[in-house]
């Protein structure tokens, strides 16, 4: 997983880009038919995103593959997904890895993390948008407001700083998958707190 950006490999590149341009013109918005009870919101589930992509790509010689990877160390559990776009004549566009932190190492947790990562990776590679466009607010911040995000951040930070494992698990599990990812990214700016949280969530 050494890729740090989208890279281009193989030829003929011109056929791949032409096919992608044609497919993008036909990609419709995905229907938000899934519901997240924890966040009280709707989202486009993975089968819907796949259907949107395949409908547009099948007529232009394009298909995709999604690779998965995982890491189960003592201090961190993650799953990763990478989406590659392939043209029938050999052109390949390799995407970056999208990594998701896991709360536990259970089969259900791993499956949920992979599904979530596959959905977002595929949608990002093909530019798939939801039917209820909110100008990117939900994608950039899954919290209902800045105050809600700050409150969650402070709660996680306080639990980690106090080294209270029970409190940390309670606060963390109350967040949706999208919220956990956002807070986890924020914690990357404060590695000390992030390391403590990893230990507490074991």
Proportion of helical residues: 40-55%
Strand order of the largest sheet: 1-6-5-4
Number of strands: 6
Helix-strand pattern: EHEEHEEEHHHHHH
Q: Write down the Rg.
A: 19 Å
Query: Percent of residues in beta strands?
Result: 15-25%
Main sheet attributes: strand count, strand direction, barrel closure: 4 strands, antiparallel
For the record, give the distance between the C-alpha atoms at the N and C termini, rounded to a whole number: 24 Å
What overall geometry do the principal axes of the alpha carbons give?
elongated
**Overall mean confidence score, pLDDT:** 78
What structural category arises from helix and sheet content?
alpha+beta
Number of helices: 8
Task: Please tell me the total number of domains.
Answer: 2
Runs in which pLDDT lies below 50 for 5 or more consecutive residues are: 133-140
């Amino acid at each position: 997983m050494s890729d740090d950006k989208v890279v281009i490999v193989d030829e003929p590149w011109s056929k791949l880009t032409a096919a992608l341009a044609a497919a993008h013109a036909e990609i419709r918005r995905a229907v938000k038919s899934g519901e997240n009870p924890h966040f009280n919101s709707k989202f486009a589930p993975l089968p819907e995103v796949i259907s949107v992509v395949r409908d547009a790509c099948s007529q232009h010689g394009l298909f995709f593959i999604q690779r998965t990877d995982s890491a189960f160390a003592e201090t961190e559990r993650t799953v990763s997904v990478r989406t590659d776009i392939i043209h029938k004549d050999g052109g390949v566009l390799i995407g970056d890895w999208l990594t998701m932190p896991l709360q536990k190492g259970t089969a259900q947790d791993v499956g949920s993390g992979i599904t979530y990562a596959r959905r977002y990776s595929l949608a990002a590679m093909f530019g798939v948008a939801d039917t209820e466009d909110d100008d990117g607010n939900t994608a950039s911040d899954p919290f209902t407001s800045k105050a809600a995000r700050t409150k969650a951040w402070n709660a996680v930070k306080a639990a980690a700083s106090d080294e209270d494992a029970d409190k940390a698990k309670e606060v963390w599990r109350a967040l949706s998958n999208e919220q956990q990812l956002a807070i986890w990214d924020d914690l990357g700016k404060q590695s000390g707190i992030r390391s403590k949280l990893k230990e507490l969530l074991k």
